[in-house]
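ARCHIVE ENTRY
Sequence with per-residue tokens
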Amino acid sequence: MVIVFCDYKKGNRLMKIFQLLDLLEKTESRVNQYWTYWSTVVLGVSSWLIARGKLCDIEIIVPVALGTSAFLTANFMALKSATKVAVSIRDEIRLSSSEVDEYFVSESMKQMLIKGDMRYRLNVTIYLHLIIDVALLILLTVCTATA
């Protein structure tokens, strides 16, 4: 497919959108990696607690809780930052697309580029991460408190 640009400024804006879409894909891949690491740790620690099936010694739980807390905090900060970047890139695509929508044939593509928004994504990310993090740490504390 060859696109001939008559308007230099609009052609540059269209290239900018393609570059932004590429950057968004790379950023989303990074966000997905952070979620994968997080879910692996949450499931691993939860499974370990369930598999023990008995009261936990404080000598075992303290290092596990400290390591888990350190990981959850670092992951939360990285995920929050990467999600902010993804949301910002998506907003830039939305704003830039309205100027070059005549280059897109598909109405659904035009609508996705112009109207797609992720306004609640950062909040959902923060709340989901924190709620499950706190629940996991409470579970570790309860296991120690009942030992």
Notes: The two ends are 67 Å apart (CA to CA).
